Amino acid sequence: MTSETDAKQIADAAPRPAAGGRAASAPLLGRATEPTIFELSQPGRRSVQLLTTGVPEWPVDELVPVEHRRDVPVRLAEVSERDLVGHFTRLSHRQFSVDLGAYPLGSCTMKYNPKICDAVAVLPGLAAVHPGAPASLTQGWLSLLVELEEVLCAITGMAAATLQPAAGAAGELTGLLLMRAFHAANGEQRHRVIIPDSAHGTNPASVTLGGYEVTTVPSDERGCVDMGALREVLDTDVAGIMLTNPNTLGLFEEEIAEIAAAVHEVGGLLYYDGANLNAILGVVRPGDMGFDIVHMNLHKTFATPHGGGGPGAGPVAVSERLVDFLPGPRPVRRLGGVSEGNTFSPSEFAWVEPSRSIGRVHSWHGNALVLARALTYILVHGSDGLQRVAERAVLNANWLRVRLAGVFDVPFDRPCMHEVVLSASTLRKEHSVKALDVAKRLLEEGFHSPTVYFPLIVDEALMIEPTETESLQTLEALADALEAIVVEARSGDQSAWAAPRTTPVSRIDEARAARTLVATFDARR
Amino acid sequence: MTSETDAKQIADAAPRPAAGGRAASAPLLGRATEPTIFELSQPGRRSVQLLTTGVPEWPVDELVPVEHRRDVPVRLAEVSERDLVGHFTRLSHRQFSVDLGAYPLGSCTMKYNPKICDAVAVLPGLAAVHPGAPASLTQGWLSLLVELEEVLCAITGMAAATLQPAAGAAGELTGLLLMRAFHAANGEQRHRVIIPDSAHGTNPASVTLGGYEVTTVPSDERGCVDMGALREVLDTDVAGIMLTNPNTLGLFEEEIAEIAAAVHEVGGLLYYDGANLNAILGVVRPGDMGFDIVHMNLHKTFATPHGGGGPGAGPVAVSERLVDFLPGPRPVRRLGGVSEGNTFSPSEFAWVEPSRSIGRVHSWHGNALVLARALTYILVHGSDGLQRVAERAVLNANWLRVRLAGVFDVPFDRPCMHEVVLSASTLRKEHSVKALDVAKRLLEEGFHSPTVYFPLIVDEALMIEPTETESLQTLEALADALEAIVVEARSGDQSAWAAPRTTPVSRIDEARAARTLVATFDARR
Amino acid sequence: MADYLPHTDEEIAAMLAFLGLSHLDELFDSVPEALRLAGGLRFAEGAPEPDVLAHIEQLADANRARGDRLVCFAGGGAYDHEVPPVVRALAGRSEFVTSYTPYQPEVAQGVLQAVFEFQTMVARLAGLPVANASLYDGSNALVEAVNLGVAASGRRTVWVSTGVHPHWRAVLATFAAGTGHELIEIPLHEGQTVWPGDDGGPGGTPGVLVAGYPNYLGCLEDLGEARRRCDGYGAMLVATADPVAAGIVRSPGDWGADVVVGEGQPLGTGLGFGGPYLGLFACTMAQVRRLPGRLVGETVDTEGRRAYVTTLRAREQDIRREKATSNVCTNQTLMAVTAAIQLGWLGTAGLAEVALRCARGTRYLREALLELDGVSPLTGNSPVVREFALRCAVPAPVVIERMADQGFLAGLALSDLIGGDDDGSVSPDDASHGLLVAVTERRTRAELDAYVAALDKAVRG
Amino acid sequence: MADYLPHTDEEIAAMLAFLGLSHLDELFDSVPEALRLAGGLRFAEGAPEPDVLAHIEQLADANRARGDRLVCFAGGGAYDHEVPPVVRALAGRSEFVTSYTPYQPEVAQGVLQAVFEFQTMVARLAGLPVANASLYDGSNALVEAVNLGVAASGRRTVWVSTGVHPHWRAVLATFAAGTGHELIEIPLHEGQTVWPGDDGGPGGTPGVLVAGYPNYLGCLEDLGEARRRCDGYGAMLVATADPVAAGIVRSPGDWGADVVVGEGQPLGTGLGFGGPYLGLFACTMAQVRRLPGRLVGETVDTEGRRAYVTTLRAREQDIRREKATSNVCTNQTLMAVTAAIQLGWLGTAGLAEVALRCARGTRYLREALLELDGVSPLTGNSPVVREFALRCAVPAPVVIERMADQGFLAGLALSDLIGGDDDGSVSPDDASHGLLVAVTERRTRAELDAYVAALDKAVRG
Ligand SMILES: Cc1ncc(COP(=O)(O)O)c(C=O)c1O
Ligand SMILES: Cc1ncc(COP(=O)(O)O)c(C=O)c1O
Predict the structure, then answer these.
(1) Do D444 and D426 share a structural domain?
(2) Which residue ranges of chain D lie beneath pLDDT 50?
(3) How many distinct structural domains can be found in chain C?
(4) Which residue in chain C has the smallest CA separation from A1?
(5) Amino acid D398: pLDDT
(6) Which residues pair with B409 in a beta bridge?
(7) Low-confidence ranges of chain B (pLDDT < 70)
(8) Which residues of C lie closer than 8 Å to D, measured between beta carbons?
(9) Among B166, B398, B444, C129, which residue's CB has the most CB atoms within a 10 Å radius?
(10) Phi, psi values for residue D151, rounded to 5°
């Protein structure tokens, strides 16, 4: 392939790693370190294969003016396809996942991610569509987005939604900008947003980025917003309040109607952080509780996989009075346009800009393939199935709560919703075994750890969200494992301090990572 | 779904496991046993979801006469989709594979299996085609099969091939039946087939099934067929000889021309066991060596994955005088039929029955999707690439041979082809560490073991076939690991006896499995 | 240059130097010059993956019978059943796909355990205590079963019902040329085997009887009758069975079969133009040491943990060589793993439900078609549960072509299956006009209705 | 009833009993009766997977612009690059797909190490020492970059070249409503930013300058000029860059950019109708404590083995809450892992080769199109390497519709991108007639020639 000559010239000029390419096999289930791909690299080795195109093979210097031309190529790993596969397959064997076992991370809703959604996400008719193609050529996608918006509104009890935000936090910020635009349209400039002390960190961070100041309200002894304290901080400078309900303690804010009334009374808006929506699907809707703005984490409630940290999707639904402010463009079903079966007239769906839109919040239309997965999940479950989801999620959490009541402290000992917050406070005091130690020790038993040290208001918090897709037997096994760890600790056995030992690496020195920052392979030398 | 009522009635009648469903999580990289799917089962749980069809829901007793009706349903595991995924994903984490590391099993050619072939095997236009559809509706498939047959003939130097045999051994038996038919057509009834003592076990087993008696010829001190001994057993009762070249010692039978002449002289045929074809691609062709019948193991030479023991494909190519005996029907390109670009007239390709066909050897047309994978592999490499494959395979094996010469005994110490046979004979004698111990100890180092105790004629054989897709660095690491094991053994450290210890299970009691046969879950009680 | 080779030029030079060689050619010095291929292989040079993929995609496109173009009503051992994304995902895990035969059980527990589970499921389906880890396909499983039957009975005469799939009978005949078994084909009447009178049949006392349940025309036969014959002759009963129909019909083992074989394709493996499929094989405990191929057994490791390993290896070719029960080595393990996953997905109720839905669709379509002019029954009143044969007024191959133009793969022409001969299963005239139609759980009522309308046109003049 | 719930009726009963409850409803006793949803959710009941798949497939079928129907020449930040089967297979491994944020590093080394490798690759592409573990997309990465720039410079005035993608500028503007940044858009002339005279521009001394390299019209600009301005003002230079073009053009870091952001979609992520994509973000070491989002660092475990962990966590929202550098939590890790795999597949030579092939196709097509009547250049002689803008004699949306009928997705209409306004990047007339055309390494000469012929027709009257 003469067409490679130039690329090769460029490559040849690259500085070569002094010693590369060493070792390309690693123990199955062993505990050897996997080398970085850069260490597997050998100059001149390659995997890439490109289509034969017949396009004339001008050399690079006829194509790029010298001042713009790269003189040293971007140094990348040079590996064979075989080593590429070996490397990333071995890395995958060093990674826990929902598919390997229970992942009871509170607040994260690590439920089973149905494989059908993977099949949907690779359909060529969805995956190979350019986002900039006009609506006339993408009626299927627009229809899908509109359908999703409609079911999300039905689930939340809201009037309309934007699908653009790429995650929950993006949804939060979008929601706060909606709040801001709403008040501005009323000629008001408000400065404060209230959040409870149990709130997730993204809430205050988003408030700041939304140009507001955070006012924190404490939780009362029942773990809910302290109504008295709330009333104290409420005034007409309050743009709104951000709540999740059930809250991060897994408890339903029973006084939500009163809260809504109080906030609305001063002209504020209610923002619903949808991270815990899983608990109330089909039981109660944020719109009916009085919320004005709702974000959903489709990667939590609607089972789109978390991908090791993303992608997610964070649609924001709003009540009637906020519809005109939504980000644009929005996909809409044209009035009068009727699809017959599944054939679409090319203009049935269109993009429109809401009249007082806050503007775009995404480069294109949001994480479209995540949206397609979520719709698939919702349609399989349907209105009936989603309610079963909530029931089973809450059932599982309460079963664990009662089962573990004698094992850990239960700071708020009353029926919970989809997750339960326990505390290792006593264990720590009496046996010096912290929540972190319990978490690490549990890894050895084949379970992912619960969320620890969140919410911040619970000492030595262990937050467990089993989700509805784990069976009673798994709950039993998890509870048994946790109990055994506590029994072990109480017996004076301090194994937990040294845990985990059966994992691909043992306990990690986090402090050192921050102290001597090595964030790239090149920083190692 | 009322349509499930009957199925449920049937299911309800099933005897329920006394205690099922326990445990549904297992340690990541831990060494806990994965329960069987039957132990994860809980009566009434389900994953299945079927299309809504609208077909009338007659109850089972209106459809199946009572004497044919099953009264107790087939008891299967009852698991949620989540548990199904967890179970088989965890099982996959207990399995070594090419994708995880080097797999230097001699005679098995465990090379990298390109991912593009997986993509080909799921193309709906190939995968969703019924094998009984007439040729007019399956021209693409027939074209593919003919194209594969043509390149296989070019590679082996033969006139035509059948693609029906599903593996190498099936090819062998097919070849022997071709031999039989050939002699019968000449009015001859011969009784013996010669195979060398180094031959693979399938060779003699196939000979028996082909209705012949095995005559074994010894190898000479150079590891090749002993010409003198061969001449002694050759007479007109000999139907043919089965050889692999290079042979199972990885050595090229240099006197192959003489062997061919001698066998042909008595009217016998030469059968080529293609298991070692990888060594000679583009260098020398079985047809040119004088072979009349050749099977290929596409799962070895042409990289179709072994699938934990199959599927494979074992096409058999023959010389001109055997073409009419090939199994039928055969896909052929019709004379005069010309395809333009990639459009086919519906009758360009057709199935024909060879005039003196031995008959079918497969329910349909062979392992079609395996054949499609192999064609893909061959086309990517092309005539030039396949030759590089052989060169690199032989280069790698010889590098290991020289590198390990001081470490193990080298029974036949001369240049090898694509694999090298070493011996742990001295190690065993002097340090009581057997080939098996070396193999087990190597597992701990992250490599699959070489083939051990084959070929049978080498004491404490360790047969290593690195294949061309392993890099020099991997060879170095493998050699270092083997050397370290030997050094360890020589130092009196008997770790190898206890090996492997870092694997999902430690050394297995094979004798017990045979003694107290438990071949099903139901046999456990 | 398209390949997957890691060697750089520098490395090749260094490796050659290490070997004391100066050129790659010298590696092949042991190959006599006269035999060497001059000028390399004679076909096209390599092409990059995307070029090759485009070529193969064009071939795929040329298959009119692809499932996304023609609605599939063809069966004959290969059926268009639901294979859900979850089964594809799990069976496609590269640890299963790219591993070898579990020679080193300590690093192969994944495949071994999956196969152990498969064996259990197949044994339960068959109604017999033991099953092996797979054979190539249904026909090859039948060959092995007959070999076992002959060895067990000590008699080479084999009565084969012509209700057994014609291709399988053809494969049996091919291999009988080597083993010398005498195959006697027994005719059907209206879809039921007419075993020879009790005075014995041709070829002397049979050692093995083979019958289909259901047979290839879709009919359920009275296996009890075959069993009684076997008891009389001291013969072995081999039954071919369909693993999906087994969801609602009696197990052949329950009828007293000694060996049950079947085509495992319906268990999670797609149509794939006929392969790779999966030969199912189950037998009685008495025959376990004659079992062909691989068998996984449970045992323990040195620490007493449950573990799996291939066992009774002394039956196999690599140990017993010419005395092995079979020559099979590479088999269809990945399909066995797939079947275990698919059966795990189906579960007790799911398998029954799929079988029931097939039976319902079969009933619905057959009844509607028999109302048409130009269509008549071919197997009398024999019970059918997943597939049935019809006699059309025009030759079946013509019907199939016409139906393709209307969007259906209408079924299989009996003449194609039988290969034209009068094989005794149906009359020659029924053979040329006979159409074998299969209805799976994936066929909707709308599709069935459309099929009826299309066939109504297709069978005219 | 279609769902994935394991609970059997018996288990539900037992669990309720354990809780002292008699009905599932009682679990929700804390929800005030008045708020409870009577009669359940108001949309269709659940449907089995195959029904839903059929529905979604029909929607997919309704997209005319799918890549298997229209040959793609659209770009604008989303490109039709080769994503080989090997990258899809690896990135699709369920351990990567179904894991969470690596909160427990001991069981998350797979994702952590892949991200560490990704960070290294992105830093090298950008020509800067550190990169984060991904942001939502290019536009959101730009928002974060500007936030960082404002924080670092202490000044809220931001000069944004209109060469920055119009959608990204729109997103910047949306979020500026919250942060209060003053965005000043700087016009282009023939594809090059015309920075205000040295006497300073509107809005006072800028704290941040933002420029595209290449800009959204495909042009390479003189970043040195922007750098000089920044040095003069003590401002931060933020460059948006394309990771594929980076294979042959200078790194923005090399030009002196303080922060480089980009859309990572070209690195192994398909078009996917715009998401999930991948925000790339790299910066100087001086700014590392202002870096938004997740960062993986190397460390050791208790046994001294190399290990990875998320680090400098004190920047993040879960620790710093309202004082965090960003609110990002869930990001695009899977796409980052995918990019690491794709870049591993490309290697040093492969990335350069892809960039070169894009540049060749761009040159070939642009030259041929400019020969046509009714087509004229839009960005003068500015150098282009992967994408270019043309002025057509008829409005671009019309051209696109006409080209679709001939089998092409011809490109993007500038008017669609800009949203109709006169944004300063091109004249209003150029906006309405401007077509942005991208050529990737997947486009063959035959396709380019056919495109030319088709456009020749499309731009007539
Ligand atoms: C309570 C809560 N709110 C908000 C978020 C932020 O959502 P995302 O991670 O999708 O940005 C989370 C995520 O963990 C959460 O648990
Ligand atoms: C030398 C030799 N011959 C024949 C065979 C049998 O081939 P298969 O396993 O494909 O039936 C093998 C397989 O290992 C082999 O190595």
Answers:
(1) yes
(2) none
(3) 2
(4) C1
(5) 97
(6) B423
(7) 1-31, 335-346, 525
(8) 49-50, 82, 84-85, 89, 94, 442
(9) B166
(10) -65, -40
Question: Nearest Cβ partner of C174 from B95, B127, B358?
Answer: B358
Gap between the Cα atoms of B292 and B283, Å rounded: 18
C-alpha separations of A518 from B308, D83, D129 in Å: 41, 30, 10
CB–CB contacts below 8 A, B to D: 50
Q: Name the closest residue on chain C to residue D50, using Cα atoms.
A: C84
B201–C318 C-beta distance less than 8 A: yes
Q: Residue C126: what are its φ and ψ, rounded to 5°?
A: -80, -20
Q: To the nearest whole number, what is the mean pLDDT of chain D?
A: 96
Ligand 2 close to Cβ of residue B244 (< 6 A): yes
* Chain B nearest CA to C298, separation (Å): 5
Same domain, C296 and C395: no
Give the residue numbers spanning the domain of C388.
Answer: 67-82+347-460
* Region label for D256, one of left (φ > 0), alpha (ψ between -120 and 50) or beta (otherwise): left
For position B31, what pLDDT does the model report?
61
Residue A440, domain CATH: 3.90.1150.10
Given CB atoms, is D2 within the 8 Å cutoff of chain B? yes
Domain count along chain A: 2
Ligand 2 contacts CB of residue B460 (under 6 A)? no
Find the helix packing angle between C166-179 and B168-185, rounded to 10°. Answer: 70
C-alpha B201 – ligand 2 centre gap (Å): 8
In Å, what is the CA distance from C408 to each residue of A284, B76, C275? Answer: 48, 34, 22
- What whole-number distance in Å separates Cα of residue C113 and Cα of residue C129? 18
DSSP string, D39-80: T--SSPBP--HHHHHHHHHHHHHT-TTBTTTSEE---SS---
Of D244, D245, D260, D261, the residue nearest D385 (C-alpha): D245
Q: Which residues from chain A sit within 8 angstroms of residue B31, using beta carbons?
A: 29, 502
- Show residues of chain C in contact with B185, CB under 8 Å: none
Q: What is the CATH number of the domain that holds D434?
A: 3.90.1150.10
pLDDT in tens for each of the 525 residues of chain A?
A: 334 445 445 444 433 332 334 444 444 445 678 899 999 999 999 999 999 999 999 999 999 999 999 999 999 999 999 999 999 999 999 999 999 999 999 999 999 999 999 999 999 999 999 999 999 999 999 999 999 999 999 999 999 999 999 999 999 999 999 999 999 999 999 999 999 999 999 999 999 999 999 999 999 999 999 999 999 999 999 999 999 999 999 999 999 999 999 999 999 999 999 999 999 999 999 999 999 999 999 999 999 999 999 999 999 999 999 999 999 999 999 866 554 444 456 679 999 999 999 999 999 999 999 999 999 999 999 999 999 999 999 999 999 999 999 999 999 989 999 999 999 999 999 999 999 999 999 998 889 999 999 999 999 999 999 999 999 999 998 999 999 999 999 999 988 999 998 888 999 999 999 999 999 999 986
Among B65, B94, B123, where does a domain finish?
Answer: B94
What pTM value is reported for the model? 0.96
Residue A39 structural domain? 1-94
Structure tokens at A306: 């978390």
Q: Which residue has the tokens 């991948």?
A: D278
* Torsion, Cα of D157, D162, D163, D167 (10° steps): 100
Residue showing tokens 């549960």: C385
Q: How far apart are CA A168 and CA A201, in angstroms?
A: 12
Which of residues 404 through 463 in chain A touch B, CB cutoff 8 A? Answer: 443-447
D84·C49 Cβ contact <8 A: yes
pLDDT of residue B30: 53
Cα distances (Å, whole numbers) of residue D108 to A511, B27, B86, D112, D114: 17, 14, 17, 6, 10
How far is residue A333's CA from residue D455's CA, in Å, rounded to a whole number?
Answer: 32
Q: Which of B68, B94, B120 is the last residue of a domain?
A: B94
Tokens of A272: 């619903």
